[in-house]
Design goal:
The protein is mostly helical and about 220 residues long. It folds into two domains: about 1-40, no CATH class; about 40-215, no CATH class. It is built from nine helices and three strands. A three-stranded mixed sheet has the order 1-3-2.
Length: about 220
């Protein structure tokens, strides 16, 4: 979080002074490059922890005698819808203080909300199926890069939301910018849900630590 704050501060106050892309190795000092790189890890970690938290929530409800998957699904759906609305209203207003912006930016809060809505459906599948799907999306979504749509094609809106960044014309004259396409984040949140059992109360801490170290090394 602190590194992300540093990154946002740099962009807000020093953006006009930049002469090159911070991710270009040939022209960027190591300190700036690694600060920028570390900040890029924040969003994936947030989404992974969202899936993990949903798994722990389901486990807690199971211990109370409820159907954990049903409870988690309802929780994810409601919270996901709330985050989507929050992004297009409060968050967008906070960026520009314009109640009728020409561009509505669909960023990390939006994609976390939609990921939660997607996970609300996926939790009803066997956990191993969610794990396989999550791995397939995370490892394979870049294979879809050759697929593109132009704004005049029927699949453009859906593909801009799922895979490619783009601008979507809205009915009231504004445009939406999909800064965070959804598909990869469904994979990340699915992986978070899948590792939920690793953090159950009855799992030995050493076992959990070994699993995390091995997974991280892989």
């Amino acid at each position: 979080m602190l590194l992300m704050l540093v990154d946002h501060t740099r962009e807000l106050f020093y953006y006009p002074m930049q002469v090159s892309d911070p991710m270009t190795l040939a022209t960027t000092p190591p300190t700036l490059f690694f600060t920028r790189l570390a900040a890029h890890l924040c969003a994936p970690v947030f989404v992974l922890l969202t899936g993990l938290a949903a798994g722990l929530y389901a486990d807690a409800r199971e211990r109370q005698g409820e159907d954990g998957r049903v409870a988690a699904s309802a929780f994810l759906l409601k919270r996901g819808l709330f985050l989507v609305v929050l992004e297009v209203t409060v968050v967008n207003f906070a960026w520009s203080f314009d109640p009728t912006p020409a561009i509505v930016y669909l960023q990390v809060i939006w994609v976390i909300g939609l990921s939660m809505i997607a996970l609300a459906a996926l939790v009803h599948l066997p956990r191993i199926a969610v794990l396989v799907l999550g791995l397939a999306i995370v490892l394979g979504h870049n294979l879809l890069d050759p697929i593109t749509f132009t704004p005049d094609q029927p699949g453009y809106v859906a593909w801009s939301m799922l895979h490619d960044r783009g601008f979507i014309d809205l009915p009231f004259g504004a445009r939406a910018r999909t800064s965070y396409p959804l598909l990869p984040w469904i994979g990340v949140i699915a992986l978070g849900w899948s590792i939920g059992p690793w953090f159950a109360r009855d799992v030995d801490q050493d076992v959990r630590r070994r699993r995390l170290v091995v997974t991280g090394a892989a």
